[in-house]
UniProtKB/TrEMBL annotation:
Keywords for the protein's UniProt record, in alphabetical order: Coiled coil
Protein name in the entry: Peptidase M23B
Source organism per UniProt: Shewanella loihica (strain ATCC BAA-1088 / PV-4)
InterPro entries for the chain: Cell_wall_metabolism_enzyme, Dup_hybrid_motif, M23ase_b-sheet_dom
Taxonomic classification: Bacteria, Pseudomonadati, Pseudomonadota, Gammaproteobacteria, Alteromonadales
Top-rank lineage group of the source organism: Bacteria
Residue ranges crossing the lipid bilayer per the database entry: none
Keyword Coiled coil: yes
Any Pfam family matching the protein: Peptidase_M23
Length: 299
């Protein structure tokens, strides 16, 4: 097959018959067009893939922001809990401090109801991370706990001081009555012989209260030869007191009694001529003159 091309010019029509190579031109044009289309299609696909990847990346960033927000809110909740705990502990410390200050009459030197003056540069800086802040607050809680322990110890010490005051022997073993026989040599009321009286007798109305002259632990509550119904109290430091000739007893062995507490009723049991209390003070197991304890000021 052959192709003839007529070209119209000024001098008439000219006939031109192309060779076989010219017949390949349309094929080449079609092939070039197809290649260009495929290239453009590939670029469009790549651009679309890039857009899709960008969309996915933004979605991931959005999810990360949501997770970060949730974590921050959780840390803030923990922070609020820490603050609440510290406030509760500080409230207790303030209450203890106020009580101690009141007990020792130091209200003019210690005021736990007002804010404490503070100042100086902060070591935290302007940018505070929650983790670091929580760690600092944990250390603060630890310091508060330590101060709490110290205040508890101080409270125990003051309680011990009160116990020492309770154990301080002073005053008479009766509320109403009179001294009927002092400590020392006297004529025995039963045989008239000169004998040693190892206590002080306080006479009064039968059934009147007999009271402890100091706090301590009851080591004897019952009948003892010569004493009748007897109460003995150990006050520590080697000191004990005895209360004899009672009508009835109000305590038992092992009881802890306070200073001024009623321990018996006045009577005349044992070797006695009438209602009275035979009162003794023993140091290291030996009777001593109770006079200085009876008339000294309360501790």
């Amino acid at each position: 097959m052959s192709v003839t091309v007529f070209i119209q010019g000024r001098n008439g029509a000219t006939r031109w018959q192309p060779g076989k190579r010219w017949l390949l031109l349309p094929v080449l044009l079609i092939a070039a067009g197809t290649g260009l289309y495929q290239h453009n299609a590939k670029q469009i696909q790549q651009q679309q893939a890039s857009v899709d990847n960008e969309r996915v990346a933004r979605e991931e960033q959005k999810n990360e922001l949501i997770e970060l927000k949730g974590a921050t809110e959780s840390q803030l909740a923990i922070l609020v809990t820490h603050v609440a705990k510290m406030q509760a502990k500080l409230a207790r410390l303030e209450a203890l401090g106020q009580q101690v200050a009141k007990d020792y009459k130091l209200e003019d030197q210690f005021d736990f109801s007002s804010e404490v003056g503070v100042g100086g540069l902060s070591e935290l800086g302007s940018n505070i991370e929650l983790d670091q802040l929580i760690q600092d607050m944990d250390r603060l809680v630890s310091r508060i706990d330590n101060n709490n322990v110290q205040l508890s110890l101080l409270e125990t010490v003051t309680s011990n001081l009160h116990i020492d005051e309770e154990r301080y022997i002073s005053g008479r073993p009766i509320q109403k009555g009179w001294l009927s026989s002092p400590y020392g040599l006297r004529n025995d009321p039963f045989n008239g012989r000169r004998t040693m009286h190892k206590g002080i007798d306080f006479a009064g109305k039968e059934g009147a209260d007999v009271v402890a002259t100091a706090g301590g632990v009851v080591t004897w509550a019952g009948n003892m030869f010569g004493y009748g119904e007897l109460v003995e109290i150990d006050h520590g430091n080697g000191l004990r007191t005895r209360y004899g000739h009672n009508k009835s007893l109000s305590v038992a062995v092992g009881d802890v009694v306070a200073k001024g507490e009623s321990i018996a009723k006045m009577g005349s049991t044992g070797r006695s001529t009438g209602p009275h209390v035979h009162y003794e003070v023993l140091r290291g197991g030996q009777q001593i003159d109770p006079k200085k304890y009876v008339y000294r000021k309360a501790g």
